[in-house]
């Protein structure tokens, strides 16, 4: 489980542990990771400090899972950043590449090494990637972030076809405006305004709502589902979102 120190990742980990699973949490921030382990308070939880854009770090996560728990049945590629922001004519190559390194390369690496372990085990498995509604339209987010999430959806589909022969399912979940620090950046009223003005469903999007979908995709209840990008957005896409037209300046910080 990458990006597991908070937000959607931590909520998925909490749900998985509650259902009796063993989880390796991977996060770049050791304080957040250690706090997550303490919060979950279970001997079936381990933490590995990891920069998921680096292959050696991702390999260490899977090595730790094998040593601690003996096998890998599910992979959650959840780590992500808002990344590069601003007009395309003012984007820098460094900011663009950093956004893709965290949001796309990490999914590639998690899928590569997770699938390798599952194929060796010979018992199949499931991979769930966190994409976004930003990857489904031209108005869901900044251009670099949106492009990375579109790439995650495409990678999900192509690897689902390739890995089906090994009984490994690969799916993505596409959250809408979810109330996490990554989205509101200290301005929680922002997501509430989007909910009131753009999102049809009257409730605030919460991490546990995405955990519902992600854990379903990882379970046998979805055993015939693969190559899908499941949208969980309170009807945002149905209403043709134009989040990018609204005040996104807070994401610069």
Any idea what the radius of gyration is? 17 Å
Helical stretch tally: 8
Mean pLDDT: 90
Coarse structural class = alpha/beta
Number of strands: 6
Give the CA-based shape: globular
The strand order across the widest sheet is 3-4-5-6
> In angstroms, what separates the terminal alpha carbons?
26 Å
User: Percent of residues in helical segments?
Assistant: 40-55%
Main sheet: strands, sense, barrel: 4 strands, parallel
Poorly predicted regions: none
- Please indicate the percent range of residues in DSSP E strands (runs of 2 or more): 5-15%
The helix/strand series, from N terminus to C terminus, equals HEHEHEHEHEHHHE
Question: How would you describe this structure to a colleague?
Answer:
- With 253 residues, the protein is of the alpha/beta class.
- It has helices at 7-18, 30-40, 55-69, 93-121, 143-163, 181-184, 188-197, 207-218; strands spanning 23-27, 45-49, 74-77, 125-130, 168-175, 229-232.
């Amino acid at each position: 489980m990458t990006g597991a120190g908070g937000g959607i990742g931590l909520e998925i980990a909490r749900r998985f542990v509650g259902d009796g699973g063993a989880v390796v949490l991977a996060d770049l921030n050791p304080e957040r990771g250690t706090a997550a382990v303490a919060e979950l308070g279970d001997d079936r939880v381990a933490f590995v400090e990891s920069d998921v854009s680096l292959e050696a770090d991702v390999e260490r996560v899977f090595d730790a899972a094998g040593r601690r728990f003996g096998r890998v049945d599910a992979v959650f590629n959840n780590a992500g950043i808002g990344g590069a922001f601003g007009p395309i004519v003012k984007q820098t190559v460094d900011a663009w590449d950093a956004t893709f390194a965290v949001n796309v390369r990490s999914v590639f690496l998690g899928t590569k090494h997770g699938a390798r372990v599952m194929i060796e085990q010979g018992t199949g498995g499931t991979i769930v990637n966190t994409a976004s509604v930003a990857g489904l339209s031209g108005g869901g987010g900044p251009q670099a972030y949106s492009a990375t999430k579109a790439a995650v959806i495409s990678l999900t589909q192509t690897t689902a076809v390739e890995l089906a022969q090994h009984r490994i399912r690969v799916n993505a979940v596409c959250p809408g405006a979810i109330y996490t620090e990554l989205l509101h950046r200290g301005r929680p009223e922002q997501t509430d305004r989007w909910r009131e003005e753009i999102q049809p469903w009257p409730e605030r999007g919460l991490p546990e709502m995405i955990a519902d979908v992600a854990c379903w995709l990882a379970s046998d209840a979805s055993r015939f589902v693969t190559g899908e990008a499941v949208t969980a957005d309170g009807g945002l896409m149905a209403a043709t979102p134009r989040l990018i037209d609204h005040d996104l300046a807070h994401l610069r910080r």
